[in-house]
Amino acid sequence: MAKRTNEQWLSDLHSAGPQREEAMTELSRVILAGLPYALSKWLSPDDPRFSALAEEVTQETVMRVTARLDTFEGRSQFTTWVYTIAVRVALTELRRAKWHEVSLDELLAGKESDDEPQEMPDLSPGVQSSVEKKEMMVMLFKVMQMDLTEKQRTALMAVAVRGMPLEEVARRMGTERNALYKLLHDARLKLKNHLEKEGFSVAEIMATFEKE
After folding, report:
1. Which CATH number does the domain housing residue 199 bear?
2. Contact residues for 119 (Cβ-Cβ < 8 A; gap 6+)
3. Beta carbons of 137 and 116 less than 8 angstroms apart
4. Do 62 and 85 contact (CB within 8 A), yes or no?
5. What is the pLDDT of residues 153-208, one digit of tens each?
6. Structural domain count, the chain
């Protein structure tokens, strides 16, 4: 079959009956064919999870694309626009899967008697930069233990340190997304005030983590 133009994709997907069904079937094939390359940075096609993920992402992407046809502005190839949506869907599913079997207690587990957390965020091998980042993280963890409530510490550790999605943290903590935002805002404000009293500025802290 000849490659469809943007106009043909839109026309066929907007139509009814067999023409639309054929276009949707072809669209599914296009998405499935492109996912191995599009997701290779995050998940190998050889991974046992890939096949099921690809099927789920394809179905969800087709649904989203057909529901948003009127938002396509034609600035790129239609299939490029579709791949962008597919990757977003896939990354969302991968994040959900990552945290599906992880409890908040496991996220927060650490060696309380030690000066630093059991698991540190990934640090680059650069000597001075790596040491500075590690020291800064140790200090931040100490401040979190001293100044934050248990709920604030749980929320900040899960979202800001461990990278758990907001929706997942809110669900685990039995709270609303807006309430979690407020909890995180208050926690960050406490940290900021404490660090400023110690002579640190937010800019200095951020600069440490931006060093190569």
Report:
1. 1.10.10
2. 110
3. yes
4. no
5. 888 888 876 777 788 888 888 899 899 999 988 988 888 888 777 776 666 665 55
6. 2
3-state secondary structure 130-186: HHHHHHHHHHHHHHHHHHCCHHHHHHHHHHHHCCCCHHHHHHHHCCCHHHHHHHHHH
Domain presence at residue 44: yes
Element at 187 (helix H, strand E):
helix 177-197
Whether the predicted model's global pTM rises above the 0.70 cut: no
- Residues with Cβ < 8 Å from 15, sequence gap 6 or more? 23
Task: Please give the Cα distance from 183 to 171 (Å, whole number).
Answer: 14
Q: Residue 70, exposed/middle/buried by CB under 10 A (0-12, 13-18, 19+)?
A: exposed
91-130: pLDDT as tens digits: 878 777 666 656 666 655 543 333 333 333 343 444 445 5
Q: How many of the other CB atoms lie within 10 Å of CB of 86?
A: 26
Domain boundary among 100, 124, 157: 100
Nearest by Cα to 11 from 3, 161, 84, 19: 19
Q: How far apart are CA 122 and CA 133, in angstroms?
A: 10
The two three-digit tokens of residue 133, written as one number: 């980042």
